[in-house]
Specification:
By secondary structure, the chain is α/β, with parallel strands linked by helices. The protein contains 9 helices and 12 strands. The protein folds into 2 domains: about 160 residues, Periplasmic binding protein-like II (D-Maltodextrin-Binding Protein, domain 2); about 80 residues, Periplasmic binding protein-like II (D-Maltodextrin-Binding Protein, domain 2, 3-Layer(aba) Sandwich). A 5-stranded mixed sheet has the order 2-1-3-10-4. The chain has a 5-stranded mixed sheet with strand order 7-6-8-5-9, with helices on both faces. A hairpin with an 8-residue loop joins β11 and β12. The longest helix is centred in the first third of the chain and has 14 residues.
Length: about 250
Amino acid sequence: MLIRIGSRGSRLALTQAGIAAEQLRGPGVEIALVPITTAGDRDRTRPFGEIGSRGVFVKELEEALLGGRIDVAVHSAKDMTSTDADGLVVGAYLAREDPRDALCGVAELRPGLRIGTASVRRRAQLLALEPSLSIEPLRGNIDTRLRKRGERRLDAVVLAACGLDRLGLAAEIEKRFEPDELLPEAGQGALALQVRVGEEHVVAAASGRRRAPLRRRRRRWLPRSSRCLSRRGVADGTRGSRGRIVDSPRCRG
């Protein structure tokens, strides 16, 4: 059996697709990776809210599934909305890795630092921690944002720790924010394997016991529109904390 796995084309996305492929490989199973460019990949300049309201890194992968061009779509769970497109379902979630946000460039927040992030949630919470920070819009994949930190002479950037870990870039991390400092995105750290309804067996080898609990949390916590537009953070039992939802303070300015 050939399983065609669709993924965004970035280095991180393909690494994550490779992680999923290892879970799905078995006797008689062949894997083909199919890179797909999404709206969020094509447009690297406009704010997410101007690109589209439904998963700017998800829609094209879902269309490829519905069109029969791929058999499984691998998503970062935080990129998804609370509902699947008609005819699709998340058949499995892989074990969640470190969901925390990471500060790269400095070890602690200090007054007046220039920090790059395009996330409304991170901006709001960072300003709540230190109102004198200068938060500058910064988009792109992990390698691009790390490079732009130097090119634009930013003091630091804030990224998802799990992405840096998966790419072997943990050494770039100066600080991992605990949830009581900076609440992570809903679903951050988890990978979702989406399939066509009725074909959940394709990803059964990766489903384990994680599918039902994470599906319930997704419906409760993830926004209906793109997660990039949300100020909401979630502490999902991380490092002993109890699950909770918090709306970040509104951004200043």
